[in-house]
Write a sequence for this structure.
């Protein structure tokens, strides 16, 4: 089926009374980055061009799809579909907003975003946050009580660390200085909370993201995982799919001795399971492809 036909079929699958989950997830599961980008451009009933140069998902469509999915009690499926189709800038902005409006236990997500996105991706997320929520992400995070850490302290800690001879070049230290306004402030003041992120953990995010994401995944797949942990499964599979998912899958297999897709099949159910596994299986087809990064220049802002 040609992509334009796919787009029409997808719109039909989510625009009636209820949701044709089978058709919708079958279509979405095979789309690659370019097809997602084209879908956002060619479906004005779902997306509109924002003044900050990204396709913004229509709020009414989000509310409608949530309502229809709930008829089938498919909360995780709805979130997976919405996050998968969203522009990456908008997706990260919404994830960040969700983190700062929840309890301190969610603040670690801010560190995850700040430490695992490129400078260009972070700038895009800042632009989207401004458009979506009419304030800057810096202004929002400044209202939360955090521990202040000087960037120089982080630079010294990294340079003197002997873990895999970490970061001895000034380029990475400069990168940390640029990012410190967000990720260094995302360490909660209350030391008794589980959400406290130590300096060592922050460095770990930056230097070994695959190991970090696999820890998030295995925690999400535990039988006793709470909802906030379970939601991380969708977040990691979707946000890393066109970035470093191949490396994450390989590291997961090496670290836990079982393929990630098989582990998901043991825990997840129904169409949600099939969709998430299809996103992982699709990675095998992309081993020779080079990920296309979002561009901040006009005409290249869509993904």
């Amino acid at each position: 089926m040609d992509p334009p036909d796919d787009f029409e079929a997808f719109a039909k699958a989510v625009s009636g009374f209820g949701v044709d989950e089978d058709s919708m997830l079958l279509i979405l599961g095979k789309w690659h980055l370019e097809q997602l980008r084209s879908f956002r451009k060619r479906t004005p009933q779902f997306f509109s061009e924002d003044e900050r140069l990204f396709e913004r998902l229509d709020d009414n469509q989000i509310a409608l799809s949530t309502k229809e999915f709930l008829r089938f009690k498919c909360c995780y499926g709805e979130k997976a579909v919405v996050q998968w189709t969203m522009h990456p800038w908008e997706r990260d902005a919404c994830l960040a907003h969700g983190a700062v409006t929840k309890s301190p236990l969610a603040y670690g997500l801010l560190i995850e975003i700040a430490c695992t996105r490129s400078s260009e991706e972070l700038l895009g997320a800042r632009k989207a946050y401004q458009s979506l929520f009419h304030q800057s992400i810096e202004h929002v995070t400044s209202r939360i009580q955090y521990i202040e850490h000087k960037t120089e302290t982080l630079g010294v800690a990294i340079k003197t660390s002997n873990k895999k001879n970490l970061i001895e070049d000034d380029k990475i230290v400069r990168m940390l200085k640029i990012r410190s306004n967000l990720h260094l402030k995302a360490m909660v003041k209350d030391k008794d909370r589980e959400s406290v992120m130590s300096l060592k953990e922050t460095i770990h995010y930056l230097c070994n993201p695959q190991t970090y994401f696999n820890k998030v995944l295995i925690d999400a797949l535990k039988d006793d995982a709470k909802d906030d942990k379970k939601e991380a499964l969708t977040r990691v599979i979707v946000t890393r799919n066109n970035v470093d998912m191949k490396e994450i899958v390989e590291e997961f297999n090496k670290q836990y001795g079982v393929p990630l897709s098989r582990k998901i099949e043991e825990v997840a159910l129904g169409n949600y399971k099939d969709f998430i596994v299809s996103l992982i299986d699709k990675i095998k087809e992309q081993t020779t492809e080079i990920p296309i990064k979002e561009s901040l220049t006009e005409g290249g802002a869509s993904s």
User: Anything to note?
Assistant: Strands lie at 47-49, 55-57.
